[in-house]
From TrEMBL:
Gene3D superfamilies: Multidrug efflux transporter AcrB transmembrane domain
GO cellular component, one term: plasma membrane
Sequence intervals crossing the membrane: 12-33, 265-284, 291-311, 317-339, 360-380, 386-408, 433-452, 651-670, 677-697, 703-721, 741-759, 765-786
Originating organism: Treponema porcinum
Taxonomic superkingdom: Bacteria
Alphabetical keyword list: Membrane, Transmembrane, Transmembrane helix
Protein name, as recorded: Predicted exporter
Length: 791
């Protein structure tokens, strides 16, 4: 027997070594592949589920998400414009050049204004808008346009120089320039140019705008490298003598919520660990169990991190934060082993303890890993990482318990457990009566609650509810909204086989947008075709402007020029009949830069661009516009994310049912039909109770609570499996009470580490923690009454 036990110890030790070497080798391979770079990802956008769409469209959407999501506004306010501008200049000087910003702007570059005028003048025949073309094509429209041009020429003010009258008697350049400026005013914020900066006067205060786009480094969540930290370091000391700063943009809120969540969870994890250690000290009063338990947690955490890095090349910081809360789950294996190690007088070696616990620990491992494995199939990178992290860590803990712990000498004397004398069966307890009544009552109460509160039961996700603006953040966004009048929350992605197709599709979209938003505030938009029209539209512009040529001689005479200039004008017009503005050919560099935020370009053989509305004034109307074309897609991040999370929630519930069936099949290999149904009924009761309590509290079941439900599914099965294994022991000795005691201790430690997450103010963590705590309590109580005669 000793030789067999020794051989088994060596076999399990080899498996332990092989597993950890395999994970280490994969990690080292990743390091060489990534040239030694190990990245803890803290990007906001990588913690969100990706929308389901084709690869090219997804790439286009990610570019826009990054652009809009990393955009920040800093408004510097003061009753004095000079003071506000001076403070803004100080901030700009200190932030300019920082690697935390992809770009930052305060001053408006007017050096290209002459180039803009020249470009508009050169292509004045091609740039007429649809309304002007329609007016020119109407009876008498050309004459009215010519008269208006004369009125402008003899008026007090024009944007362009009257020196161009010899070549532009109808002031087409002036007309097009005013259309450009009007478009820019409607497409952006309500700020206007004043003394070289963008400013606005609202409610007796001047506001000067600094606009910036964060870099990847600057967008890192819960990091001291986050640009928000630098902004406050620069701005806070300047907030005095009437100068006030208003901060607006997603990064301010994402940084605050992630920082608060990280601090909360770190505190919760630390306190949980201290509570668990205190319990272990009270119970074991020896260093071996505590030292080896902590060592097991450390090894499993390192292994989990290495496995995650090896598979994904990086790890999100929230994966690590959530993974460290698995202390209670990982320590279960150690508790079951060391309770028998310290108190069970039937066992005299680690091999005997392992043989006693192996089946229960093995089935527990299978059920837990299966539940985490389900999350691998969710199209959500953060969940995949959490799944791999958790599985790798739990497998490591299990192998440590069965391969390493048996080498620890078992104490031959002083075998007792503190508080073991309290583990007595109550005199009133009768398993056949009380147990069945209590469990049946739990089913009845949960089902009854669902019947009464069924209207409250709903699977619904609302991303907006995950973070609630409070205090200064709420005040700043309210004030910024009043000043900027700019709140883009959705966009059209336009595609086409050629550049011309994309521009024509854009123009079709913007024409419909104008109808939808006629007379509405915030009805503007940004797009490429507003600056670079399609060739088709340029041809229409030339056709409409051609109607002015017969009036040219008379127009020149009215302006005091020789009528013979009309002949030169006609020659110039027809000589340029094939000259069109085309992307990448004759578009000035400064204009290409101006449209770079809206023009995406070629991806996988197709071309893409974006029409970015100033705001979504009518969501249903915008969706209808997109639905009318196969080349147009409307994306509203919040609404799309809600629907994506709804889809993920239903998908995970479906996988949950599959795992439920698989686990039942696995149990049938080890237990009778009656025992299998008894075990598998516990997760069903867990789900019913969680849903019932959520419905009673009028809390919608959403993605994060469902994830918690999946996790507690495996944890809850552990208790009933351990207890079922213990029931095979028919003796009434003190040793028979050890397994129920281990389960009780396991419940307390797991409830402390997981359930305490419910105290977090970060809604996703709160919902996961609440769901797990309710499930754990139901699992333990049902196990207490359902499967055993003792405890």
């Amino acid at each position: 027997m000793r030789k067999l036990a020794s051989l088994q110890n060596k076999t399990y030790l080899r498996i332990w070594i092989a597993y950890h070497l395999l994970v280490a080798a994969a990690f080292v391979f990743m390091l060489f592949a990534k040239h030694g770079a190990v990245k803890v990802d803290a990007d906001l956008f990588n913690m969100l589920p990706k929308p389901v769409m084709e690869k090219a469209l997804s790439s286009a959407d990610e570019k826009l998400t990054e652009m809009t999501g990393q955009n920040v506004f800093i408004l510097v306010s003061n009753e004095s414009f000079a003071e506000a501008k001076a403070a803004a200049e100080t901030v700009y000087a200190q932030l300019k050049g920082s690697p935390r910003f992809k770009s930052i702007s305060l001053y408006q570059d007017t050096s290209n204004f002459g180039g803009v005028l020249e470009f508009i003048q050169d292509f004045r025949w091609n740039l007429l808008d649809e309304k002007t073309c329609a007016e020119l094509n109407a009876p008498g429209g050309a004459e009215i346009f010519a008269q208006n041009a004369l009125a402008s020429a003899y008026g007090a003010f024009t944007m362009t120089s009257l020196e161009n009258l010899e070549t532009d008697p109808f002031l087409l350049g002036e007309h097009n320039l005013q259309n450009y400026l009007s478009y820019l005013q409607n497409a952006g914020t309500s700020m206007s140019l004043k003394d070289g900066v963008m400013a606005s006067f609202v409610k007796d205060k001047w506001y000067v705008m600094i606009r910036a786009v964060l870099s990847k480094q600057g967008a890192a969540l819960a990091s001291k490298e986050n640009a928000v930290v630098q902004i406050h370091e620069v701005c806070d000391p300047l907030e005095k003598d009437g100068t006030h700063f208003v901060y607006s943009g997603t990064p301010f809120h994402s940084y605050k919520s992630s920082s608060n969540a990280t601090k909360e969870i770190s505190i919760i994890t630390t306190v949980s660990m201290l509570v668990v250690l205190t319990i272990l000290l009270l119970i074991f009063k020896r260093p071996h169990p505590i030292v080896f338990s902590l060592l097991s947690i450390f090894i499993s955490t390192v292994t989990a991190m290495a496995a995650t890095f090896a598979l994904f090349g990086k790890m999100h910081i929230l994966t690590l934060v959530f993974g460290t809360s698995l202390i209670g789950s990982c320590i279960d294996y150690s508790l079951h082993y060391f309770i028998s190690w310290k108190a069970n007088t039937d066992f005299h070696s680690g091999s005997e303890i392992r043989a006693h616990l192996l089946k229960g620990l093995g089935l527990s491992l299978i059920s837990t890993v299966l539940c985490y494995f389900v999350l691998v199939f969710a199209p959500f990178n953060l969940l995949k990482q959490m799944s791999v992290f958790s599985m790798a860590g739990i497998v490591s803990t299990f192998l440590t318990a069965i391969a390493i712990y048996p080498y620890i000498p078992v104490p031959e004397t002083g075998k007792d457990v503190y508080l073991i004398k309290l583990m007595k069966t109550p005199s009133w307890y009768n398993k056949k009566f009380v147990g069945r009544v209590v469990v049946t009552l739990m089913f009845v109460v949960s089902i009854g609650t669902l019947l009464v509160c069924h209207k409250n039961f709903k699977i619904e996700n609302n991303v907006a509810s995950l973070y609630k603006m409070e205090g200064r953040e709420f005040q700043d966004e309210t004030e910024a909204s009043q000043v900027l009048n700019y709140s883009p929350s959705g966009w059209f992605i336009v595609s086409g086989r050629t550049v011309e197709d994309v521009l024509q599709n854009e123009e079709a979209v913007t024409a419909k947008l104008k109808v939808v938003n006629e007379g509405k505030a915030k009805g503007g938009y940004i797009c490429t075709s507003a600056f670079i029209p399609s060739i088709k539209k340029q041809q229409e512009s030339r056709a409409a402007s051609e109607r002015l040529l017969p009036l040219a001689a008379e127009q020149y005479e009215y302006l005091g020029y020789d009528a013979s200039l009309a002949s030169s004008l006609r020659k110039e017009f027809y000589a340029g009949k094939d000259d069109f503005i085309q992307m990448g050919k004759n578009v000035p560099e400064y204009l290409e830069r101006a449209v770079s935020s809206a023009w995406i370009g070629e991806i996988d053989g197709k071309y893409y661009s974006v029409v970015l509305p100033t705001s979504v004034t009518d969501y249903d109307a915008y969706v209808k516009i997109a639905d009318e074309s196969d080349d147009v897609f409307f994306i509203s991040k919040v609404r799309n994310m809600n629907s994506d999370l709804d889809r993920l929630s239903k998908m995970i519930l479906t996988l949950f049912v599959i795992v439920y069936i698989v686990i039942f099949v696995v149990l049938r290999f080890f237990y009778t039909w009656k025992q299998s149904f008894k075990i598998i009924s516990v997760p069903l009761l867990i789900v019913l109770f969680i849903v019932a309590i959520f419905s009673l509290a009028n809390i919608h079941l959403e993605f994060f609570s469902i994830v918690g439900m999946i996790l507690v599914f495996g944890l809850g099965l552990d208790y009933v499996i351990y207890m079922m294994e213990n029931e095979k022991r028919k003796d009434e000795s003190e040793n028979a009470k050890l397994e129920p005691f281990a389960i009780a201790l396991s419940f307390v430690t797991t409830a402390v580490s997981f359930g305490s997450l419910a105290l977090s103010k970060f809604i996703p963590v709160h919902m996961i923690g609440l769901s797990i705590f309710i499930g754990l309590a139901v699992a333990y109580v049902s196990t207490f009454f359902y499967t055993r005669a003792e405890f």
